[in-house]
Design a protein that fits this description.
By secondary structure, the protein is an alpha+beta fold. The protein folds into 2 domains: 4-169, BirA Bifunctional Protein, domain 2 (2-Layer Sandwich), CATH 3.30.930; 185-275, no CATH class. The chain has 10 helices and 7 strands. The chain has helices at residues 14-24, 49-59, 80-85, 88-106, 140-144, 147-160, 180-190, 198-201, 211-216, 224-315, and strands at 4-11, 42-44, 71-78, 111-117, 124-129, 205-207, 219-221. A 5-stranded antiparallel sheet has the order 1-3-5-4-2, sandwiched between helices. A two-stranded antiparallel ribbon has the order 6-7. Strand 4 (111-117) and strand 5 form a beta hairpin. Helix 7 (180-190) packs across helix 10 (224-315). The longest helix has 92 residues, at 224-315. The chain is elongated. The protein starts with a strand and ends in an 8-residue tail after the last helix. Residues 174-180 have low confidence and may be disordered.
Length: 323
C-alpha cells in the first residue's frame, strides 16, 4: 500500500520562518540532501529566502497579535515505494495537485514559497503559506485550528491524489510522525552496506581505450579519486534498493502498530457505548415497571372510589320517602 502524506507546522516568529526557508533553499548545510541533485529542485513563488521573506512581509497585516502564527510550513509527499514505481508524469501530476490544494485552501497570494525537493531520499513538496483570512486577519486556527479540520485536510488531500494509487491514513489514528532526521537514522540502521576489502582499496589498472592503447598496450591506473568514485558507486548501488525496502518495511510496521492502537481505542469506545446502552435498557425496564405499577394502583383507586360512592348512595335515604 502507498499513502498520501500531509504534515503541517506552525511558525510564530520571523526567525523561525527564515531558518526553515534557508533549509528549504539549501542556503545552510543540509545533511540529508545530495548536492549533486539539488539543481533538480523546482521552486515556485520564490527562489530564495530573501525573496520569500519579502513576500511574507507584504502579506502580513499592519497589526497582528505578538503570538500570531506568521506562516505554516507544509510537507506533502507519498510513501517511498510509490516514488519507486511512479513515472515522471505521475510525480509531476502529484506535485501539481499538492500546490493546487494549497492555493485553493489559502489563496495563491498567500503561498510565499513552494519547492519540489528531489535531492533527498524521498521527493516531497516543502511549502510555506501565510494563514491570512479573506478579511485580512492572521488566523491559523481558522485553517488548521483543531483536529476535525486537520482530519478534513488529510481526507481532502488524499481524495485529490487517490487516482494516482495513493490512500489516506487511518482517520482518527493516534500514530505519531517521525522527524526527518529520525527517519533517515532508522534507514541507516536497518540497511546493511556492502563490505569493502583491502583488495577493493587498491588502485585498478585498465587498458587505455582506442587504437593507441591496443598498439602500445598501455594501461591507466586509478587515482585516489577514481578509487573513491568506484567504491561510492558500489555502495550507492547496493544501498538504494535496500533503503527503499527498509523504508517501506518501517512504514508498514508503523501502519500495523497504528491499526492496533486505533482498534484498541475503538474497542474501548465500544465498551463504553455498550455499558451506556445496557444502563439505558435497565432504566427503561424500571420505568416500564413504575408505569405498570402506577396503572394498577390507579385502577385499584378507581375501583375503591366507585365502591365508596355506591356505599354512600345506598346509605343515604331518598328525599320524600315516608311522607
Amino acid at each position: 500500500m502507498a499513502y498520501a502524506i500531509l504534515r503541517a507546522k506552525k511558525l510564530k516568529t520571523a526567525g523561525s520562518v527564515a531558518a526553515a526557508l534557508q533549509h528549504n533553499f539549501r542556503e545552510r548545510p543540509t545533511p540529508n540532501a545530495h548536492p549533486e541533485r539539488t539543481a533538480a529542485n523546482e521552486h515556485h513563488a520564490a527562489s530564495s529566502t530573501a525573496e520569500a521573506m519579502g513576500l511574507l512581509r507584504e502579506r502580513l497585516p499592519a497589526k497582528h497579535r505578538k503570538d500570531a502564527v506568521l506562516a505554516v510550513e507544509y510537507v506533502m509527499t507519498a510513501s517511498p515505494a510509490w516514488f519507486g514505481q511512479a513515472g515522471p508524469d505521475a510525480q509531476r501530476t502529484f506535485f501539481d495537485r499538492c500546490l493546487a490544494w494549497l492555493r485553493d485552501k489559502y489563496g495563491a497570494d498567500n503561498v510565499i514559497a513552494a519547492t519540489v525537493q528531489r535531492d533527498e531520499k524521498t521527493p516531497h513538496l516543502s511549502a510555506f503559506v501565510v494563514p491570512r483570512t479573506p478579511d485580512g486577519r492572521l488566523s491559523a486556527k481558522e485553517f488548521i485550528g483543531n483536529r476535525d479540520k486537520m482530519r478534513a485536510d488529510q481526507t481532502s488531500f488524499a481524495e485529490l491524489v487517490q487516482d494516482l494509487g495513493l490512500e489516506r491514513g487511518i482517520p482518527g489514528s493516534r500514530a505519531t510522525h517521525q522527524r526527518v532526521a529520525q527517519h533517515y537514522a532508522q534507514i541507516a540502521r536497518e540497511v546493511p552496506l556492502p563490505t569493502i576489502t583491502e583488495a577493493d582499496l587498491a588502485p585498478r589498472a585498465e587498458s587505455v581505450p582506442g587504437l593507441v592503447g591496443k598498439l602500445l598496450r598501455q594501461r591507466d591506473v586509478e587515482t585516489p579519486y577514481g578509487v573513491a568514485k568506484r567504491l561510492n558507486a558500489v555502495v550507492r548501488a547496493a544501498a538504494t534498493p535496500l533503503a527503499a525496502k527498509a523504508a517501506t518495511a518501517a512504514q508498514e510496521r508503523r501502519r500495523a502498530e497504528e491499526m492496533a492502537r486505533t482498534a484498541q481505542a475503538a474497542q474501548k469506545q465500544l465498551g463504553a457505548l455498550r455499558k451506556a446502552f445496557q444502563d439505558l435498557q435497565k432504566s427503561g425496564r424500571n420505568l416500564l415497571e413504575v408505569i405498570a405499577r402506577g396503572g394498577a394502583d390507579l385502577e385499584q383507586l378507581q375501583q375503591n372510589t366507585a365502591a365508596q360512592l355506591e356505599q354512600r348512595r345506598l346509605n343515604t335515604p331518598e328525599r320524600g320517602r315516608g311522607r
